[in-house]
Give the backbone structure.
Amino acid sequence: MIKQLSRKFKEDNNTGFGSSDTTQGSRLVNADGSFNVKRTGLPFTYRFNHFHNLITMKWWKFNFIVFVAYVVANCLFATAYFLTGVEQLGGIMSEGIKDRWIEAFYFSCQTFTTVGYGRVNPIGHSAGLIASFESLIGLMSFALATGLLYGRFSRPRATLLYSEKALISPYRNITALMFRIANARKNQLIECEAQLLMSLTETENGRSLRRFYPLNLERDKVTGLAMSWTIVHPIDDESPLKGWGEKDFKEAGIEFIFIFKAFDDTYSQTVHTRYSYRHEEIYWGAKFVPMYHQSTDHQSTILEMDKLGLFEKIILSEGSNPTPFPIEGSQ
């Protein structure tokens, strides 16, 4: 049976998610921070947001699309030159059909990029008209590609690394939910703010409802994210998690939604990101392994990013010192 929370804990009704549990997927926030929502029923023209997709897609996809578009466009123009007659292109030296088409393709590439080496040139009206149109398309295409490249490089975003697991760990004679984050870039994130929400399923009047509760953090602001930051929610008398066990987490379908906001001094803009941990990603009885130390010359601090998710198992017992086990964990 799903455990019910006391009404003394105030809900957060401004999350943007609905309250009906039966109409939502098993996860609210994907691993990449995006909302786990797929839109259907839109008109055909609304289904494709080309600019957003090209700005946010992975680099290999973007480069592949640019390369394919470049090759396809030049193949089409090369075919157009070939069909109008390669005799309208002065300087063609090949005799075979295949070789002539290839030379027309090379000429198309030179025209498309406005390089124009000069050996092959249009001498007929049809070829000249096609070349003029191709030059216009080429200039517009490269201007568009340049704008997209600039947009991809200049788009401010927080690139945080998260520990793969969130832990239930000892904390000041009680326990706490904690996970660890670190900045993956060399830029400076300042005025950092953190917010943690708990999403769970409750039954009310026979209906399964999804409710959201804000969780107090040991520290919800830091001046700068210079090293790692362990986000800690103390499970004390003020915590909705007081008295909950691993079985309760699973039955309630708990998901912890983390929201991060900071000021990026590189772009002089505010950046934000999201992450979530579901009940199966919570490890009970563990603590994180330290991930930074002094350099050998004692002049700087070494932050070992590959240890962000490393932890060791311990025995949970309130009011006593935890007993560590051998190191485990994952990245």
